[in-house]
Design a protein that fits this description.
The complex is a heterodimer of chains A (583) and B (633).
Chain A: H1 3-6, H2 13-45, H3 50-99, H4 102-107, H5 110-135, H6 137-152, H7 154-201, H8 203-208, H9 212-237, H10 240-264, H11 270-312, E1 332-340, E2 349-358, E3 363-368, H12 374-379, E4 389-394, E5 397-398, H13 404-410, E6 411-414, E7 423-424, H14 425-429, H15 438-447, H16 451-454, E8 464-465, H17 474-486, E9 492-496, H18 504-517, E10 522-526, H19 530-533, E11 538-543, E12 546-551, H20 553-559, H21 561-574
Parallel strand pairs in A: 3-10, 3-11, 6-9, 9-10
Antiparallel strand pairs in A: 1-2, 1-4, 4-5, 7-8, 11-12
Helix pairs in contact in A: 2-3, 2-5, 2-6, 2-11, 3-5, 5-11, 6-7, 6-11, 7-9, 7-10, 7-11, 10-11, 15-17, 20-21
Chain B: H1 19-73, H2 79-128, H3 131-136, H4 139-181, H5 183-230, H6 232-237, H7 241-293, H8 299-340, E1 352-358, E2 364-366, E3 374-380, E4 385-390, E5 395-402, E6 411-418, E7 423-427, H9 434-441, E8 449-454, E9 457-458, H10 464-469, E10 471-474, E11 483-484, H11 485-490, H12 498-507, H13 511-516, E12 524-525, H14 534-548, E13 552-556, H15 564-578, E14 582-586, H16 590-595, E15 598-603, E16 606-611, H17 613-619, H18 622-628
Parallel strand pairs in B: 7-14, 7-15, 10-13, 13-14
Antiparallel strand pairs in B: 1-2, 1-3, 3-4, 5-6, 5-8, 8-9, 11-12, 15-16
Helix pairs in contact in B: 1-2, 1-4, 1-8, 2-4, 4-5, 4-8, 5-7, 5-8, 7-8, 12-14, 14-15
Classes of the chains: A alpha/beta (583), B alpha/beta (633).
Chain lengths: 583, 633
């Protein structure tokens, strides 16, 4: 199993070591039992020696008790070690994810991270437990039983040896070819699931185009393909059982034949014959177990790799050695900044040669087409990504020299794809400031024009927000997110298209509040709607990662073609007619 | 997404309520297609159990008839009869091996086949469920039925059922042989079996309890991870990592606690059974020894019996080990069958959409060819006449009331008329009921009161498939399917030629970007067209509607901010599509409302104002407020 994954056992290592030891104890006792049984029959039953039967019986009971203790403890430790490993894996992954920079997060999709933290961890847990309990037990049992067999009668034991080798080769050949087919099968399985997923989320489209029959037909073809490949793979695996039986039966018959003849020349006793038969089962079952472990390990290997990927992912944003712990003011300077996502993998630059000098307290509007890198530009300010060339300075100091937490507390970002979390409105607001009083929260909400709808809710600020914020409207959500950002009392406030679902009138009131209440804070406003930015001190027009123009609304109307075009299209009758909230 | 949000209606817990009934239904499934297979499997199981029993009994024969006479009485060892006996047993063994081979092979077909037909039935059923079902179940829950729950079936059908059956036959046959060999030793064995059952029951009950807790905790942790990971970027900008980790740590520890306990008890099952089995063996040996000394049984019988004792305990512990997977399978079956038992969308409509041509005297005549002329075929039972009404696209709402649940109406007394070719725009705030109205026209939901008429026919009388075929829909959230771009456009008209596909794409302004793609119309789309931009996806959705060429359109304009240029391209596409068709538009754009023949202003489920743009502006009411962005109240 994956080394990186195994390293996470940590405090459960002791259990991981104890488990196989306990299992060996159980195996040892299991091996003693047939030997004692032979003695009961030979010395006790045949010779009519009742005392011997009771005495050996007592030994057997003791062996059973020891075996029981070994088995129970092995089970307990195995459970602790494997579920402990799972716990640590989840914890380490989660903690590592918390250190991820935005570019790390972009590399893994959210849904793949969730699968890695859940399904993959469960797979590894099961495989690990199986391995701990069986991987030692099966070979140990195999070796001990073989040794006992040789001890009792080397001639017969040789039959086992040959049988084990033959059976081993056959079983592993079967498993090997089957796992190859299984590997082919998994992508097909994913495709089937994707088809279900698509149909669930697109059910309205399917129904409105009356395409149920066609979709069912398509699904059935995918389903049939899975059937075919799994039947093919499992038919191979199904050979295991009969092959195993064939071997066991052949052994029994051979031993009976040879054994009876050996008893006739007094080279063997009846009891010994019987214990040899018992060992025969033990040896071959252990072999079977080993092959099963092999299957489980190959199946969990992929999961292990996927987990290790998350654990090994290193954040590409690190705190400097001697970080600056205070942000003096809200001035922002971009100097020859270029940036590409996946720069090291040859990603194309999305920002090139950006130069900006923004004074503390300025309000900056940013506009441009989708893909013109507006969001990218502002995310460099709070160091969500690192620049490839040039530098970004906040309060006169390069953002890479700040303590990350200090910087991000000073630069408050309202993301385009924003999110509220399950909990009350107050809980959500306090993300901005842990110990904010209710009055502080109200004040922030008044600025963000959120107070007006919150106070109309029956539970007011204690209203519970469902997961994903499904019980507030788009515009309400945006206003809550703005309030949350305001609570940080930042030096710089960045609104990345954060009022798109808020009606123009409310939008205007929020901007007015910014002007009068927090004049010292530098504000960046990204918007599609010209009315949201036209009263900004300066407006930056971005086009394909370049600054196409910068100036006031009036200046840009005169000098900038893109700006003028957008302005005219919005005032000329094809602008937004955005929804207003009913509060 | 307006309307009722998806609530997880509490997935039925992992504990099945009616295992007996579930078992019957699973078996019903298996027997439906694989009755013959299953009967052969049963015969094979019986054969292989009996054959291996023969082998065990052979031991008695070996000892009593070939070895003991020699040991106890001395004399010449005679190998001839022994060889004969071994040959006979070899035949039994051979039958056993063949039987088990046949059984395994058939079981694969039965298991995979049953899983396949369950999946297919699930999917077929799912496609027929009303939209309401998807409103009330999360996507995750539905997906989990196809993956986790079907998987438990596989374990159940391929392992648990044959195992239990095998065990039952083994127990009966071994018990019979045991009683024949020695009733006293049988008694000892049986008493020990009860002890075993008691102990196993204890462990199984505890592990079951903790497994239930584990599943629940797993659900909680999954939910938490999902929420936090999707909000990861927000966590970053708020430096909220620490608090999140703390909470996660707590949940994670609880999961660990439940999982470790559940596994501990489950792991205990093996040793309990094995060691109690050994104890049972010792007690039998002592009893057997006593009996043999007193010459009540032969030594061979004791030896054979001791082997039988092992064979008797084995199936019992095997069944015990299947216990947890059976419980889980039953719970899975409950969810599978509860989806299958959902009431499908009912369709009692009898008015159909047919191709017609002008016959002599201007009458419409039904024809199987595609004339491009459509009519509603309306059969009047009272007069036994069939009427053909040309498809025009006239839609009337007459005092419609609607609620997602009967106790809470979301639309009240909606009245409107859209004449063929007219454009009706709905405006109003989120949750005012705009999307809901459009969902009533195509009967995604049925109304509580009032009437909706399409070309003068009550929509309830129109066959749903035909009704929906006559309505084109472009939704705000564009859903594309895995397949090529051409496949996705063709979704609107399956037999469309390549030329028609291109023409539709041109109409929707989509041709331009498609032809710039390296593989053009053959570009593969996966993951809901993840490689395309929002605007491009929308253009494809418009092309898809265009190729279907419906007389009535329902459009939901995108609210999300696509940039102004793309926006204009999309808008143009929509305008071309709407030309000459009756359209219902959920509007977010000024241009849309301005050109509308009638604007409906919705507020809390009621139409508060309606009229043209100019009329409403002059009214200086709600619309005026929305339009100017100035609150005059």
């Amino acid at each position: 199993m994956n080394r990186r994954v195994l390293r996470e056992v940590r405090e459960y290592k002791i259990y991981a070591i104890l488990t196989p030891l306990c299992m060996i104890l159980e195996v040892a006792m299991e091996m003693v039992v047939p030997y004692l049984m032979a003695s009961i029959i030979d010395e006790g039953v045949y010779k009519g020696n009742m005392n011997h039967i009771v005495k050996i019986g007592l030994y057997m009971v003791i062996a059973a008790v020891i075996g029981f203790i070994g088995g129970i403890l092995g089970g307990r430790y195995g459970a602790l070690a494997s579920t402990g490993l799972a716990r640590n894996l989840r914890k380490s992954m989660y903690e590592n994810i918390q250190t991820f920079s935005f570019s790390n997060i972009d590399r893994f999709s959210a849904s793949s991270l969730v699968t890695r933290l859940t399904t993959d961890v469960t797979n590894v847990q099961n495989a690990f437990q199986m391995t701990l309990r069986m991987a030692m037990r099966a070979p140990a049992s195999l070796v001990v039983a073989m040794a006992m067999a040789f001890y009792i009668n080397a001639r017969i034991a040789r039959i086992y040896l040959i049988a084990v080798i033959l059976l081993g080769i056959v079983i592993f050949a079967i498993i090997f070819s089957a796992t190859r087919i299984f590997r082919e099968a998994f992508p097909k399985y994913d495709a089937l699931n994707e088809s279900v997923q698509e149909n669930v989320s697109a059910i309205r489209v399917v129904k409105s185009y009356v395409r149920e029959t066609e979709q069912i037909g398509q699904f059935q073809r995918a389903s049939r393909a899975i059937y075919d490949i799994f039947v093919k793979a499992e038919k191979k695996v199904a050979l295991n059982g009969p092959v195993m039986q064939l071997t066991v039966y052949s052994c029994i018959l051979l031993i009976s034949w040879i054994g009876a003849q050996m008893i006739s020349v007094e080279e063997l006793t009846t009891g010994e014959l019987m214990s040899l038969l018992a060992y025969c089962m033990n040896i071959l079952m252990s072999l079977m177990m080993l092959s099963m472990i092999f299957v489980m390990l190959t199946m969990s290997a992929a999961s292990g790799e996927r987990i290790a990927e998350v654990l090994d992912e290193e954040t590409d944003l690190k705190n400097p050695a001697d970080p600056v712990m205070e942000v003096k003011d809200g001035s922002v300077v971009f100097e020859n900044v270029s940036f590409a996502y996946n720069f090291d993998k040859g990603g194309k630059p999305v920002l090139e040669n950006i130069n900006l000098d923004i004074k503390s307290g300025e309000t900056i509007g940013i506009m441009g087409a989708t893909g013109s890198s507006k969001s990218t530009l502002v995310s460099l300010i709070s160091r969500l990504y690192d620049v490839n060339e040039g530098s970004v300075r906040v309060g006169g100091i390069d953002v890479r020299d700040y303590d990350l937490e200090t910087l991000r507390n000073a630069v408050s970002v309202v993301l385009q794809k924003n999110q509220l979390f399950s909990g009350t409105i107050l809980d959500n607001l306090r993300w901005g400031k842990k110990d904010a009083t209710e009055e502080e929260c109200r004040k922030a909400c008044r600025m963000a024009c959120a107070d007006e709808f919150i106070s109309k809710m029956t539970d007011g600020y204690n209203t519970y927000i469902e997961q994903g914020g499904t019980n507030v409207s788009g515009g309400q959500k945006q206003r809550l997110c703005i309030a949350r950002a305001l609570l940080k009392s930042p030096r710089i406030l960045i609104l990345d298209d954060s009022t798109s679902a808020v009606d123009t009138a409310t939008d205007a009131r929020i901007r007015k509040a910014f002007r009068t209440e927090i004049p010292g804070v530098t504000k960046f406003i990204i918007a599609q709607r010209i009315s949201s930015i036209q009263d900004a001190d300066r407006i930056i027009v971005l086009d394909n990662g370049h600054i196409d123009g910068i100036g006031t609304h009036e200046e840009l109307l005169k000098t900038n073609e893109i700006y003028r075009e957008v302005y005219e299209s919005q005032t000329g009758g094809s602008g937004d007619f955005d929804e207003t909230e009913v509060d | 997404m307006p309307g009722p949000g998806p609530h997880s209606l509490g997935r039925p817990g992992p504990k099945p309520k009616n295992p007996g009934k579930m078992f019957k239904r699973i078996m019903g499934y298996v027997m439906k297609d694989y009755a013959v297979h299953y009967i052969i499997v049963i015969v094979c199981i019986i054969l292989s159990v009996l054959c291996s029993l023969q082998g065990t009994l052979f031991l008695k024969e070996l000892i009593d008839e070939y070895i003991n006479p020699f040991i106890l009485e001395g004399g010449e060892f005679n190998s001839g009869p022994l060889a004969h006996a071994i040959a006979r047993v070899a035949v039994f063994y051979a039958i056993g091996v063949i039987a088990s081979f046949v059984q395994q092979r058939l079981m694969i077909v039965v298991t995979q086949g049953t899983m396949q037909s369950m999946r297919n039935d699930l999917f077929e059923k799912m496609e027929k469920l009303p939209i309401r079902y998807f409103d009330t179940h999360t996507h995750g829950d539905i997906m989990s039925i196809y993956t986790n729950d079907i998987d438990t079936m596989r374990q159940m059908i391929s392992m648990s059922i044959p195992q239990c059956f095998n065990s039952a036959i083994t127990i009966v046959s071994v018990l019979t042989s045991m009683i024949v060999l020695s009733p006293w030793m049988t008694l000892v064995t049986i008493v020990m079996v009860f002890v075993m059952l008691g102990c196993t029951g204890f462990a199984a009950k505890n592990s079951g309890k903790h497994f239930v807790r584990q599943q629940k905790q797993l659900g909680t942790v999954n939910g938490y991870i999902e929420e936090m990971i999707t909000g990861q970027k927000v966590i970053k900008v708020f430096c909220h990592e620490e608090a999140g980790m703390e909470k996660f740590g707590e949940l994670n520890d609880e999961l660990f606690d439940a999982a470790s306990k559940a596994n501990t008890y489950a792991n205990a099952l093996g040793p309990i059974n094995a060691q109690l089995g050994n104890l049972s063996y010792v007690l039998c040996a002592i009893t057997g020894g006593l009996l043999a000394i007193n010459h009540i049984v032969t030594v061979g019988s004791v030896a054979s019996f001791l082997t039988l004792n092992k064979s008797f305990n084995m199936p019992i512990s095997q069944v015990a080990q299947q216990f947890n997977s059976i419980i889980m399978a039953m719970a899975g079956a409950e969810r599978i069958f509860s989806l299958m038992d959902e009431t499908p969308e009912v369709d009692e409509g009898y008015v159909n959409l047919v191709n017609v041509k002008k016959g002599q005297g201007g009458n419409l005549e039904e024809t199987p060819e595609r004339t491009g002329m459509w009519a509603w075929k309306h059969y009047h039972k009272a007069s036994d006449t069939t009427e053909y009404k040309p498809l025009q696209g006239n839609v009337v709402f007459d005092g419609v009331d609607f609620g997602y649940t009967d106790d809470k109406m979301v639309l009240h007394d909606i009245r409107l008329e859209a004449k063929p070719g007219q454009k009706i725009a709905f405006v109003g705030s989120t949750g005012a009921g705009k999307t809901t109205i459009t969902n009533l026209i195509n009967r995604f939901y049925d109304i509580q009161d009032g009437k909706i008429r399409y070309d003068g026919i009550n929509v309830n009388k129109i066959a749903k498939a035909d009704l929906r075929r006559s309505l084109g829909m472009v939704l705000q959230e564009t859903c594309l399917f895995t397949g090529t771009i051409a496949d996705n456009i063709r979704f609107g008209k399956l037999d469309a030629t390549d030329e028609e596909v291109v023409a539709a794409a041109k109409l929707a302004n989509a041709d331009e970007f498609i032809s710039k793609l390296p593989e053009g119309y053959d570009t593969m789309l996966t993951g809901n067209g993840a490689s395309l931009s929002q605007g491009q996806r929308q253009l494809l959705a418009i092309a898809r509607a265009a190729i279907a060429d419906p007389p009535v359109l329902i459009l939901d304009e995108a609210t999300s901010s696509i940039d102004t240029r793309t926006e204009r391209i999309v808008q143009e596409g929509m305008d071309k599509l709407m030309h000459g068709r009756t359209s219902f538009v959920i509007a977010h754009r000024l241009s849309t409302v301005r050109n509308a023949d009638c604007i409906m202003v919705l507020e809390q489920g009621r139409i508060v104002e309606s009229g043209t743009h100019d009329q409403l502006i002059n009214l200086k009411g709600r619309y005026y407020t929305l339009y100017t962005g100035n609150s005059i109240a």
